[in-house]
DNA sequence: GTGAAAGCGCTAACAG
DNA sequence: CTGTTAGCGCTTTCAC
């Protein structure tokens, strides 16, 4: 503990306090090179005593190294992304890299801005959600000269590396499972988000697989904002009033799916006999609900982990041969709301 | 769009491309000082063409200014903290400040480490959750010489400024409401987190207010890990089997409270007649559940906003007289699980 | 309006 | 093992 200082301390202050050269102080503080145990201790205790905190700004400029990994995601309130972050963290914790998070709110222009801001700090790598970016953003990523991993989605061409699942395939698989279970009158509910490309791709894959069997979606609805659980309720009620012949409801995420499920249970509707249900994501929350909603795991943790590993490996040795296109395979959980066949 | 470069571009590159001095290029790019419209355009287009991204590291070192606000929170998976972040963001968006988030996992030593890391980037301000920190962390905050706002909790003495609610009072208020409604056999369930000081303080306030009326908690249980909703179910079942005479259950957060509620509904137990329930936080999720759980809003958005305002105001003018101790008052939502009296 | 010089606090590279 | 020198890429300051 020291008295409050107006000016933050510098290496020089520690150097003067110890009589050791700045350079040696720097070596001690970074654990670099050989320093005698005696001076080591002297420096360490002085630094601690003074309350010295190194200036990474200066260090980064001098060494041309910044141990930051920029992580750019659409949202923090989705639960999906914090989990990806957790995966990233779990890997980076064992390195000297640190994640720095930027949020885009699903807006391409904001993504571009956030990316620019982050790149201006010269991070060592970038992990960014999705494959769709503005022209300028893609150009920046290309020009950055650092490892770039695009995550979540593998339906497209990455700038550099990519890790994720095929959402198109995920939609198709769910459609197949639903058809196989015998449902034919299918409704869809999702977010009104033209910019959520992954939800869009799932939807496309879904309708495509239905079409292959001559089935067409009977009703659909989109929402935006509000509590997803509450929206799921409302929309489900409305849709069933509008299209009472529906026998299956596919939701673009588990939260609205859970809302729908709770509504149907209130109405004493037989699930999955009269109506089947499925969501997407495999959120942990589902486990506490009265019934388990059918869903599909998005492999979020694994995606984060893999992405971080790719960055770390490249940084460790730029010549390492690593798999740059990693496609994970989500599995269906049938739960209690989709007949198993 | 340019060809890929190994070396990132510098001001000098733009300077050479335009024939304008580095200094003037810098002025244009920062919108500082007077520059003729002609050179302005020339520089701007060249910079864009080349794909120049300024190096903030160098800029920060030279100007001794970093437009970053360090935000240090215990967790991202709690939903509470992302909301505080949203509040912070909403204010900082209108300034040139940028939040940078660090996560501590409720561990004091990790908080200390994260704080050290962040301070070493010389941010312009710090927003940190809670009032309890290690000795060293407090010393760093003191020595940093930048505005510091401790958020969430106001039961204690801040290093500099603080914004939050009194969790002790929140616990007391809820206890009073419960007693007033006529419940006497009260059980408590919460997280097994000695380090979640806010949950602890709520519990203390709660028992204290009960004690004042001669009431003692009849049963209690603590959990850790797992899906909160599922845990709420399990624990509620166990507790009621153990203590069937309970007529009220107070949960330390809404998620386990919701789990408990769903369990009781499964059991066709009369809520709030036979058993009343209450949680804490006012999470949006609750709105979609079959019944609305009684809860108390933690003012998360407002806390974030106010904290960011304090930082921004201090930075804008260090001599501004501002309120450094802001205590917000949470309100009880009775919902459908706590009798109103 | 524009430019030249002098650092910001640190580390790479070398010399002892 | 320790110290010296020369920048990193930018901005501040001052001169023109």
Automatic annotation (TrEMBL), chains A, B:
Pfam families: LacI, Peripla_BP_1. It comes from the Bacteria. The keyword Transcription regulation applies. Keywords: DNA-binding, Transcription, Transcription regulation. InterPro entries: HTH_LacI (IPR000843), Lambda_DNA-bd_dom_sf (IPR010982), Peripla_BP/Lac1_sug-bd_dom (IPR001761), Peripla_BP_I (IPR028082). CDD domains: HTH_LacI, PBP1_GntR. The keyword Repressor does not apply. Residues 9-63 form the HTH lacI-type domain. PANTHER family: LACI-RELATED TRANSCRIPTIONAL REPRESSOR (PTHR30146), TRANSCRIPTIONAL REGULATOR (PTHR30146:SF33). This is HTH-type transcriptional regulator GntR. It comes from Phaeobacter piscinae. The lineage of its organism: Bacteria, Pseudomonadati, Pseudomonadota, Alphaproteobacteria, Rhodobacterales.
